[in-house]
Design brief:
83% of the residues lie in helices and 0% in strands. It is an all-alpha fold. Helix 3 packs across helix 4, helix 4 runs antiparallel to helix 5 and helix 6 runs antiparallel to helix 7. The longest helix is centred in the last third of the chain and has 58 residues. The relative contact order is 0.18. It holds the Pfam family MotA_ExbB.
């Protein structure tokens, strides 16, 4: 333990033990990564919400489904353009429905309305799951940072305080001035742990709520679009 009267933040970190410095570096790295995912997820969810609202407005405006499906295909083919999550769900369901109808027509048989609808519903469910997996990516990392960082910081604090008290054996008179720098160095680890954990927890809770709301909108659309396809299959 380096006993110093310079209690500036940088000096305390520089004079901390190697293990405490490694803990601080680990926590700072986790904080940087969590902030990166926080901003990326914020833009991704905002974009998904805007695209969903735009597609719902176009879909429920009463336009032709075949034309809307062709627009979805053209958006998918554009360079850098893939449409929104809800548009891809619609495209999966409509595409499977059209393929099933074309297959029945090619065989010259009668269409089984239940089979047509089940195929479209399965395709939309698969697309829905892919979209949810994409939206929920990196949320587990934020949850881990939020739950683990305080304990990692606490470990660094305990280790630093232990070193501070061990250092008292090398001085003739134990005073607060002798032990205060070591304790301050150790407490910085807890502070950094909280700095990493609090934004991660707030972001995880907020984004989980936003993704759940989008999931409800996707599921509602799947049910409503299935009813439309059922009427078209008759």
């Amino acid at each position: 333990m380096n006993v110093t009267q310079d209690l500036s933040f940088i000096s305390l970190i520089a004079n901390a033990s190697v293990l405490v410095q490694l803990v601080m570096l680990l926590l700072l790295s986790a904080s940087v990564m969590s902030w990166t995912y926080i901003f990326r997820k914020m833009f991704a969810i905002r974009s998904a919400r805007i695209q969903t609202e735009e597609f719902e407005r176009v879909f429920w405006s009463g336009g032709n489904l075949a034309a809307l499906y062709q627009d979805a295909l053209s958006n998918r083919r554009k360079a850098g353009g893939s449409g929104g999550a809800l548009e891809r769900i619609f495209q999966a369901g409509m595409g499977e429905f059209n393929k099933a109808k074309a297959s029945v027509a090619a065989r010259g048989g009668s269409a089984d309305n239940g089979a047509l609808l089940d195929g479209a519903r399965r395709a939309m469910r698969a697309a829905y799951q892919r979209e949810m997996d994409a939206l929920e990516s990196h949320l587990a990392f934020l949850a881990s940072v939020g739950s683990v960082s305080p304990y990692v910081g606490l470990f660094g604090t305990v280790w630093g305080i232990m070193n501070a008290f061990r250092g008292l054996a090398n001085v003739q008179q134990a005073t607060l001035a002798a032990v205060a720098p070591g304790i301050a160095e150790a407490l910085i680890a807890t502070a950094i742990g909280l700095f990493a954990a609090i934004p991660a927890v707030v972001a995880f809770n907020r984004y989980s709520h936003d993704i759940d709301r989008l999931a409800i909108r996707f599921e509602s659309f799947i049910e409503e679009f299935s009813n439309i396809l059922q009427r078209q299959a008759r």
